[in-house]
Write a structure and sequence with these properties.
This protein is an all-alpha fold. Helices cover 75% and strands 0% of the residues. The chain contains six helices and no strands. It is globular and about 40 Å long. The model has no long low-confidence stretch (mean pLDDT 96).
């Protein structure tokens, strides 16, 4: 990722977090399960904690995009844990679609083509490393 892309991610994530983070998590998982109902059974019945874990983890990663030597090994470990949850490589595209959709709706006019590119690059970096293809 370029420096400019990392700055765009920082800026847009700040804007998004100004919306209630729990609401962002709710919108994301609702979209994911609406498009892919089969995924619902992989997650716990009560999703509040999961909303928080996802948003906290994304915040953690976003804050460390310029320190890849620390971040990437942690992302690979998270990918290994996900294998244990039954997550397969084809699931990553489904999550990408729901996440980008949520970001686009949340950011409104701030969702520019450059911001979209930056988030795609960011998600690809995370997914490739979770799948150990980084
Ligand atoms: C950017 C990509 C992703 C991020 C940042 C992320 C984040 C997280 C976090 C922080 C947890 C808490 C447990 C842990 O840290 O190991 C978790 C659990 C989980 N994630 Fe992900 N995840 C991602 C991709 C995916 C994908 C593609 C799937 C597939 C549907 C998925 C399914 C799950 C499941 C099933 C759990 C366990 C839920 C439970 O039983 O408590 N995740 N994820």
């Amino acid at each position: 990722m370029t420096k400019a892309q990392i700055q765009r991610i920082h800026h847009s994530w700040r804007l998004l977090k100004a919306i209630d983070p729990a609401l962002v998590g709710d919108v994301f998982y609702s979209r994911l399960f609406f498009l892919h109902p089969k995924l619902r059974g992989m997650f716990p019945k009560k999703m509040e904690e999961q909303h928080e874990k996802l948003i906290d983890m994304l915040s953690y990663m976003v804050a460390r995009l310029d320190q890849p030597e620390q971040l990437l090994p942690e992302i690979r470990e998270m990918g290994k844990r996900h294998q244990g949850y039954g997550v397969k490589s084809e699931h990553y595209g489904m999550v990408a679609d729901a996440l980008l959709w949520t970001l686009e709706r949340g950011l409104g006019a701030d969702w520019t083509p450059e911001t979209a590119e930056a988030w795609k690059a960011c998600y690809t970096l995370i997914a490739d490393n979770m799948l150990d293809k980084g």
